[in-house]
Structure prediction request, 130 residues.
Amino acid sequence: MDMINLNEQEQAQLTLQLTQILENWKLEDADQLVLLGLQETIKPRHLYQYRRGDKSFNFDEKTVKRSQMILGIYESLGTTFPTNKEYASVWLKRTVKKFKHKTPLELMLSGDTGMNRVWHFLDCTQGWRS
Prediction:
């Protein structure tokens, strides 16, 4: 899917997919917005409108990049924990020695570099592409 040139229906589908992933990870609304890079434009209390499909995110370059990383991390977690999808939300909140005893979520919330680090840790093929 070409995320740069999404039509309205594709934006709505992607918005719904992203909100479902972040909900499945059991993240606070404010953290969800930080991961998406939308904390400056959307208030946490308004996220329900996006979850219901009433609104779609504005997919600018930053949001597209963040969306790709979230989708990549989600897919990689599904591969890492194929028999227990619930464990992804647990793993994101547990400290990892390789991350200097920080949680993957802490790194992801720190910005693009942290999100890439988590994605590369989960999916070694990402390092080949960079």
Remarks:
- The chain is about 60% helix and 0% strand.
- The CA atoms of residues 29 and 45 lie 8 Å apart.
- Residues 61-80 form the longest helix (20 residues).
